[in-house]
Design brief:
Blueprint (H helix, E strand, L loop, with lengths): L4 H4 L13 E6 L5 H6 L5 E5 L1 H5 L7 H13 L5 E5 L28 H6 L1 H15 L8 E6 L5 H20 L9 E5 L2 H5 L1 H4 L5 E4 L1 H9 L17 H17 L3 E3 L7 H10 L3 E5 L3 H8 L4 H11 L5 H15 L1
Parallel strand pairs: 1-2, 1-8, 2-3, 3-4, 4-5, 5-6, 6-7
Helix pairs in contact: 4-6, 6-7, 12-14
Bound molecules: phosphoenolpyruvate and magnesium ion.
Phosphoenolpyruvate binds next to β2 and α10.
Protein name: Phosphoenolpyruvate-protein phosphotransferase
GO cellular component, one term: cytoplasm
Keywords: Cytoplasm, Kinase, Magnesium, Metal-binding, Phosphotransferase system, Pyruvate, Sugar transport, Transferase, Transport
């Protein structure tokens, strides 16, 4: 694979047989947007908002958050900006939101949307700030979307929608400028993957958080090197779940993206494309080389590879097989 940034960044994200892909960037704030644009991303697929909170001694107020989101939106004109609500807990904690003692199982505990629900006033502040910032998207032709992390149950999806509705009603009553936005869920909990068909009617889009989905499927901490041999995106059960989820989203006509690390791993990229995934979100620095890889792929050849990969029973067999196939493809 050629990996020269200058050559690849303006190349369209399109496969050898002319299928258009959407390659998006993962960001932590407006400061990352110029790199996302420079690397030729089609927009932002994941804005991790926790950094705004982690860098504050107290909960950032609505105005501070509004400015942070607005600045990111304005810095990515003519594209998409997918903002994720606070995903704190697990490995990242903030004392002012009640993280005063270490949980025995932080990744299975009080994190992410679960924590937002217990702080409805802070959650409301974030929702209001996003909806207000979204109104600025029109001036630069950028579509803002909002998504919720760690969704586990159908009730949680309903509750997030109700809370967004409430924030919008407040802003309307106050005559504040805001925009309605598509609402999506992150799919990163096995229970949600199993319930995907119950959840799809309630969401406008899905973003697969494979970093968490893999760790929860394999019951292997994503940050613990002792179990990294288990926490593998190419593990056969992981591939089966991903194939099922992507198929369900496509069948329902709901846009689906994958924003975990595997989106930028060539072996996984080929398999995800073959499963029907057309939108990938990754660290901006990987986008040029993924465009280059895409230019070597056809749907037919990748589907043949996927069919064979799905018959393999071990992660090492999948890895070996995919390494051989990549050497032939690109
Ligand atoms: C993921 O879980 O794959 C994801 C993108 O979210 P984060 O890495 O922020 O948990
Ligand atoms: Mg996650």
């Amino acid at each position: 694979l050629k990996n020269t940034l200058a050559e690849n960044k303006d190349q369209p994200a399109v496969t050898a047989d002319g299928i258009k892909l959407e390659l998006l960037a993962n960001i932590n704030g407006a400061i990352d947007c110029s790199a996302a644009v420079a690397m030729g991303s089609a927009g932002v697929g994941l804005f991790r908002t926790e950094y705004i909170y982690l860098t504050h001694p107290d909960v950032p107020d609505e105005e501070e958050q509004y400015i942070a989101y607005r600045d990111a939106i304005l810095a990515t004109p003519g594209s998409t900006m997918t903002i994720r609500t606070l995903d704190i807990g697990g490995d990242k904690t903030v004392p002012y939101l009640g993280h005063t003692h270490q949980e025995a199982n932080p990744f299975m505990g009080w994190r992410s949307i679960r924590l937002s629900f217990e702080h409805p006033e802070f959650f409301n502040t974030q929702l209001r700030a996003v909806l207000r910032a979204a109104a600025e998207g029109a001036s630069v032709n950028t579509q803002v979307k909002l998504m919720f992390p760690m969704i586990t149950t159908v009730e949680e999806v309903r509750k997030t929608r109700a809370m967004v509705r409430k924030a919008a009603q407040q802003l309307r009553a106050e005559n504040k400028r805001f925009a309605e936005v598509p609402l999506g869920m992150m799919l990163e909990v096995p229970a949600a993957a199993i319930s995907i068909n119950d959840m799809l009617p309630l969401v406008d889009f899905v973003s697969i958080g494979s970093n968490d989905l893999v760790q929860y499927l394999m019951a292997a901490d994503r940050d613990n090197p002792k179990v990294s041999h288990l926490c593998q995106p190419l593990a056969p059960p992981v591939l089966r779940v991903l194939a099922t989820v992507i198929k369900a989203c496509n069948k329902a006509g709901k846009p689906v993206t994958l924003c975990g690390e595997m989106a930028a791993q060539p072996r996984a990229f080929v398999l995800l494309f073959a499963m029907g995934l057309r939108s990938f979100s990754m660290s901006a620095s990987f986008i040029p080389s993924m465009k280059e890889l895409a230019a070597h792929l056809t749907e037919e050849s990748c589907r043949t590879i996927l069919r064979r990969a799905l018959t393999l029973r071990t992660t090492s067999a999948v890895k070996r097989y995919m390494a051989e196939q990549l050497a032939i493809l690109a």
